[in-house]
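agent> fetching stored inputs for the S-adenosyl-L-homocysteine docking request
agent> found them:
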Amino acid sequence: MSGSLVIVGTGPGRAELMTPATAAALQCATDLVGYGPYLERIPPAQGQFRHPSDNRVELERARLALSLAAEGKRVVVVSGGDPGVFAMAAAVFEAVETGDPAWASLDIRVEPGVTAMLAAAAEVGAPLGGDFCAISLSDNLKSWTTIEKRLTAAADADFVIALYNPASKARPHQLGEAFALLRTKKSADTPVLFVRAAGTAQARVVRSMLGTADALQADMRTLVIVGASTTRSVGRWVYTPRSER
Ligand code: SAH
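agent> prediction call returned; pasting tokens
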């Protein structure tokens, strides 16, 4: 039997937001590899093995998945949202680059998913209607200096900024520091949106402004959107026009 490895994104949380292609890959898998809480969201299938892990050991998890595929298993690596956005797909390719040369000829495929910033934007209107960028505030894999440099550049370029991983117990101060930096570059009335559990029945939106935004509104399930100079409200919606004004 020749093995395969599919890296899937399950979307932001609601079943309807998982693509049929991801659902099909999950259904024919012999082995599921992923962060425990993501695996728990997937209904059990008979004869399928699960390899849950915590969320810190991405490369190890990727190597496990590749070894199982090399043994002939149909392996699915599970990420939330999209697997290519701050998630497992890059870790798998890094493991291929640095691992057993035979892994490079395995049947590997990526199935996209609805990433958090798209689900979050849809909860509030169309804040990503103009040019935007995404920055992860996690400094597990890069330095805070790099993050500050990118925030500064994004503010100077007047991008709408989607902030992933805005907070965790290990890093309670960073979002506050990011807001402080952005306040030196952008107007105090710039819209700031905290969208928690976007695309699920528990979705919650807090609308704020850069001058007064409270970093404590964000947790690990929150996506923060900081507007561009043109981002504005109409009724209960927030949007960024496609034109410059
Ligand atoms: N691969 C994922 C992102 C993983 S990074 C994706 O494409 O969505 C984890 C971060 O994503 C969280 O800290 C949070 O900022 C964001 N996130 C994931 N799911 C979310 C959701 N349903 N609502 C809001 N933010 C979410």
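agent> quick read of the result: The chain has seven helices and 13 strands.
agent> awaiting further instructions
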